[in-house]
Amino acid sequence: xxxxxxxxxxxxxxxxxxxxxxxxxxxxxxxxDWIFSRSGISERHVxxxxxxxxxxxxxxxxxAIEAAGIAADEIDLIIVAxxxxxxxxxxxxxxxxxxxxxxxxxxxxxVQAVCGGFVYALNTADMYIRGGxxxxxxxxxxEVLSRMLDWNDRTTCVLFGDGAGAVILRASEEPGIIxxxxxxxxxxxxxxxxxxxxxxxxxxxxxxxxxxxxxxxEELLEDKKLSGTDIDWLVPHQANIRIIExxxxxxxxxxxxxxxxxxxxxxxxxASIPLALDTAVRAGDIKPGQNILIEAVGGGFTWxxxxxxx
Length: 310
Ligand code: UT7
Fold this sequence. Notes:
Elements: E1 4-13, E2 18-20, H1 21-25, H2 32-39, E3 43-45, H3 53-68, E4 77-81, H4 92-99, E5 108-111, H5 117-130, E6 136-144, H6 154-157, E7 162-172, E8 177-184, E9 192-194, E10 198-200, H7 202-223, E11 233-236, H8 241-251, H9 262-265, H10 272-282, E12 291-298, E13 302-309
Parallel strand pairs: 4-5, 4-6, 11-12
Antiparallel strand pairs: 1-7, 2-3, 6-7, 8-13, 9-10, 12-13
């Protein structure tokens, strides 16, 4: 009997403090119109002083655990995708395990693939489940990128936000995750990096993102003998509405089949997909039996796509 990984619960958390484009007009040389027309972003959430990546991850995880109807101790693997961990070590996953009160000694580790992190983490969790090494996995994307921004640099500070999203994956005989393709190409690492603040060649990243996202969704659908018309929902990484529109166009998907949260969340890196997923699930948009396609690209560069039968 084949084993699949099914998502049985989702959760998310956003810090209470929001920063609008109009707020940013007061601190850097920018306008709401510029930010909104170039990126589709109108506001983002920013963590409070002392609010850590693991705190955001914990809030999102508690909601996912509740939605899944499981006890935290049933979780036998924790993977946190983040590029803004509490500290270099211990991993945010280990800190999260403790904050959730999980005492069963199961493995916990972080995955670092920047905005591609959630796709990488989901694929890794799926491998553990299909390989029989885990049954109930907590996968989290959590970021406090606000700490890595130069708030005087208008080319970056207007784009990013903080937040966390989580899913519970469980081993099942029913199809769940049905395909994944991951890629990386370190030659392009200078295009987007944090050293220590985030710096980016926006136009180069934009072109690269549109190209590789189109390629990887095509590669995945071809492999599964599916086409864009088989997709019920595209849940893309939320970096820029124009990049999202380009991928939807390539798939022949109307925008009402695309989950869009970038306007209110900004780019929350590894957290953006699980945040968007949870938003759509709680709105009742994503329904059992539907085909969900997720995709992301991020610094490194890393990129990938995952196909899920909900
Ligand atoms: O998760 C992956 C991470 N990143 C991304 O996906 C981002 C990909 N790139 C983008 O989303 C877009 O390239 C941006 C939104 C970052 C920028 O949009 P753009 O249409 O590529 O603008 P641009 O960089 O070509 O800048 C156009 C002009 C420049 O002025 P000049 O040289 O034409 O005089 C910039 O200096 O806009 C200026 N500019 C701004 N103006 C007002 C740059 N940032 C701002 C700003 N407000 N915040």
